[in-house]
Amino acid sequence: MDTGGNSLPSQSCPDGAKRRVCYYYDRHIAGVDYGEDHVMVPRRVDMAHALIRSYGLLGDMARLRSSPATDAEISGFHDGRYVGLLRDLTPEGFGAGGEVASRARCFNVGVVSTDGRSVDNPPVAGLWDYCQRYAGGSLAAARALASGEADVAVNWSGGMHHACRDRASGFCYVNDIVLAIDELLGHFRRVLYVDIDVHHGDGVETAFVGSNRVMTVSFHQRTEGFFPERRGLLEHVGEGDGRHRAVNVPMKKGMDDDGYRRLFEPIMSKVMEVFQPEAIVMQCGGDSLSGDRLGHLNLSIDGHARCVSFMRSFNTPLLLLGGGGYTINHVAACWCYETAVAIGKEIANDMPAHCYDGYYRSQGYKLRYPVDKNLKNDNTDTYVTRTKCAVLRNLSELEAAPSVEFKEPAGGSIDAEALFYRPAPREDDDPMERLHRRCGEMEERGFLMELGKRQLDLAKDDRESGGHHHAHRPEPVKKHRSGKLHMEYHAHDHEF
């Protein structure tokens, strides 16, 4: 159903008001490789997109043009020397050592971890192009909101909240969130940043720690030795004009949906009441989900998405970004569902067949998967209540709806037509979809050839045995999943 980007009333978004949703996707990001053993896998964005397409959600959103950020746009926040390094660095140049490798390490690129086991921010091939593309998506999404052409904008390739002005950090090189917030500040008086990643949103908080026009709110795991250390404590409330405009909600291991909701909803209700933002940026890192490779929280996809639904219900321009998330099938499923929440459309739990089917076999080809019932929840009722009360006390110190000086943007109005594809790009051009289609055709031909060969073998055996079938002979079994041909060979519990 094509609703022209407007949402539909649904159970997931009971406010039921119309929403014009726009969506950014750049297929080039999927090919970026952090390295064989690295937990960051940009292909998860392509996996989410494939699910979104297969559920038929693209027709409910306007499509933002793929527009990489320029050097000047990125230098609006990041140090010029650091930008120069990102632009010029290659794996070959770094591997040669010397001055290039030394410069990179000064900016925390290619630095081996203290335990000597990993490189958080490797000098990946195509690094600058990658940074330009995900940052460009967040800028385009922010401009779509500022233009008034969209109520909700989505860029799952963004959300790199750890990157600092002059250094890489936590798998993040360019802080697209800061760039997007700065863009929104040219059009809105107050911008709220909400972070539900398992890690503290330190890069964004630091960038705006003294601002009275930006409030940052981070819900995160805060346990001994967990990255980033010594950040995101309850007492970290901002500085100077930004005092009480940094809100931190630390959690212990095992936080579940109920405890998270008991913190998130009352705190965010109070934030919306006292700060009264004109735009919201929300980082939806999927590493707070149960079963993440790095995080130790225990949220279900529904619990995670409930936060998105809650912020959507305030009917304030909303920018949704990706972020962390290292069990990639869980992350892709979550971001697909949250896209449906943004639109306001219910989607089935049974996944449509698509080019990344194999990644979801462990969860039974379902959108939702069960949380870890064996993970202990260290967040007692007392801890949750005490944390909520402490945060609300801090918020009570905040001046309600601060009056701020506001100047109209020097660049004038936004050219909305330049932001959108009209018409939307053809999805058939997606190389992964073409490959999947070709593989499916080859699989079907191969299956039929194998079936024919086995029938000939059975006929030969029948002749040799006088017409008596061998009861133990494994039979080829054809299985369908949502119209796609699958085949299995059951013999001593092996499959082909």
TrEMBL record:
Task: Name the keywords, alphabetized.
Answer: Chromatin regulator, Hydrolase, Metal-binding, Nucleus, Transcription, Transcription regulation
Q: Which SUPFAM superfamilies match?
A: Arginase/deacetylase
Q: InterPro entries, from UniProt?
A: HDAC_I/II (IPR003084), HDACs (IPR000286), His_deacetylse_dom (IPR023801), His_deacetylse_dom_sf (IPR037138), Ureohydrolase_dom_sf (IPR023696)
Q: Which EC class is the enzyme in? A: hydrolase
The Gene Ontology terms for molecular function here are: histone deacetylase activity, hydrolytic mechanism; metal ion binding
Start and end of every Histone deacetylase domain?
A: 38-340
Please indicate if the UniProt record lists tRNA-binding as a keyword.
no
Please name the CDD domains in this protein's record. HDAC_classI (cd09991)
Q: Which GO terms describe its biological process?
A: epigenetic regulation of gene expression
Catalytic activity, per the record? Answer: N(6)-acetyl-L-lysyl-[histone] + H2O = L-lysyl-[histone] + acetate
Cofactor(s) needed, names only, are: Zn(2+)
One Pfam family assigned to this protein is Hist_deacetyl
EC number annotated for this UniProt entry? 3.5.1.98
Per UniProt, subcellular location reads as: Nucleus
- Give the region (Disordered) as residue ranges: 462-483
Which residue stretches does the UniProt record annotate as biased composition, category Basic and acidic residues? 462-477
Active site annotation, chain numbering: H162 (proton acceptor)
Q: Which PANTHER family match?
A: HISTONE DEACETYLASE, HISTONE DEACETYLASE HDAC1-RELATED
What family does the database annotate?
Belongs to the histone deacetylase family. HD Type 1 subfamily.
- Please report the name of this protein according to its UniProt entry: Histone deacetylase
* Source organism of this protein record: Panicum hallii var. hallii
According to the entry, what is the taxonomic lineage of the organism?
A: Eukaryota, Viridiplantae, Streptophyta, Embryophyta, Tracheophyta
